[in-house]
Design brief:
Layout lengths: L1 H8 L1 H7 L1 H13 L7 H17 L3 E5 L9 E6 L11 E6 L12 E3 L2 E3 L7 H17 L6 E6 L10 H8 L4 E4 L15 E10 L3 E2 L10 H16 L6 E9 L5 E2 L2 E10 L2 H11 L10 E10 L6 H16 L4
Parallel strand pairs: 3-6, 3-7
Antiparallel strand pairs: 1-2, 2-6, 4-5, 8-12, 8-13, 9-11, 10-12
GO molecular function, one term: hydrolase activity
Protein name: M20 family metallopeptidase
InterPro entries: Peptidase_M20, Peptidase_M20_dimer, Peptidase_M20A
């Protein structure tokens, strides 16, 4: 026990000594820009992470997702050591996709500050996981097994990897998300639910001047559907809604036959999520002859505060105290 206490006491200094190498690793990852859907770039970064992880003692590698157009996920397992080698694994969750198009946010380093897509969210988290594994190895500390899962589609709601996440979590003792905290460093024990919803509208094309009465405008129907959704959502003030994408029609002299809109919805509670989705996923046409259909593109349920999260937070707080952190 005295040896373990001494090793724990030395972790902070050991982590500081390796900062230049970890910063260099982060910069290498960030310079490999990986917007969601850029399969070749995502898989290339995944290969680099796998190589670094294997050097740190992990086993595993890339695994296919439910949608090949998303790129591969990465599943890595670090065997346990000592008396806890047979315990249920800790699950560390991360993602390697980023938001911005390549070149939209230039990568640059100003002294000790690195700027670029994924620096904070969340290639930094991947570097932290690998650094932690290497620190455990070098200190020869006993620990439970660790599973590290990287997904390539988190920024769009994890539609292709939700099953992988559930499978990885099924036998885990607990899960920690490695996404960086807000400005004040707080750990998150709850999160809004997130749903991407697409409204499809089909009308009837016609010449807008010669025979407008023969047409049914999909674009006008879509506008009315969005106004109706706004009125309904006014009764759910905790729900965040954003109409992010609109498209429809072909020409100004043609009554539009097709239109669609993509909505982003975020929910504080499961109850509001269920009520809103029940309503918005069963739209009724406003005008005769129009057809309206809702498609759920991705959905992450609301994660509400609870005893399990509070208990895990207490355990993390205690663990942090053992290595001199708050």
């Amino acid at each position: 026990m005295r040896g373990e206490a001494a090793a724990l006491a030395g972790l902070d200094e050991a982590a500081r000594r390796r900062l230049p190498a970890d910063a260099g690793r982060l910069e290498r990852y960030v310079r490999r820009e990986t917007p969601t859907g850029a399969v070749d770039a995502l898989d290339a970064l995944a290969d680099l992470v796998v190589a670094d992880a294997r050097a740190a003692g992990f086993r595993g590698g890339r695994v296919p997702t439910a949608d090949p157009a998303s790129g591969d996920a990465v599943v890595l397992d670090l065997p346990g050591r000592g008396a806890r080698a047979g315990d249920a694994p800790a699950l560390l969750l991360a993602h390697h996709d980023t938001v911005h198009a390549v070149g939209a946010v230039p990568v640059r380093r100003d002294g000790d500050v690195l700027h670029g897509p994924g620096t904070y969210d969340m290639k930094g988290g991947i570097v932290v996981a690998l650094a932690a594994a290497e620190l455990l190895r070098d200190a020869r500390l006993g620990h439970r097994p660790v599973r590290l899962l990287l997904t390539p589609d988190e920024e769009v709601g994890s539609p292709a990897t939700a099953g992988l996440i559930r499978d990885a979590a099924r036998d885990a003792a607990y899960a920690l998300g490695l996404e960086a905290p807000g400005a004040h460093g707080g750990l998150k024990t709850a999160r809004r639910g997130s749903t991407r919803l697409r409204l499809h509208v089909t009308g009837q094309a016609a010449h807008a001047a010669v025979d407008p009465g023969a047409g049914v405008s999909a674009t006008e129907e879509l506008v009315d559907q969005l106004l109706a959704a706004r009125r309904f959502l006014a009764g759910h003030p905790s729900v965040l809604a954003n109409v992010g994408v609109l498209s429809g029609g072909t020409r100004t002299n043609v009554v539009a036959e097709h239109a669609r809109a993509d909505l982003g919805l975020r929910f504080v509670t499961g109850a509001s999520e269920r009520a809103v989705l029940r309503h918005l996923t069963d739209p009724a046409p406003v005008r005769t002859g129009a057809q309206v259909r809702a498609e759920v593109l991705s959905r992450r349920p609301a994660w509400e505060p609870g005893a399990a999260s509070a208990g895990l937070l207490a355990a993390v707080t205690a663990a942090a105290a053992r290595v001199g952190q708050q």
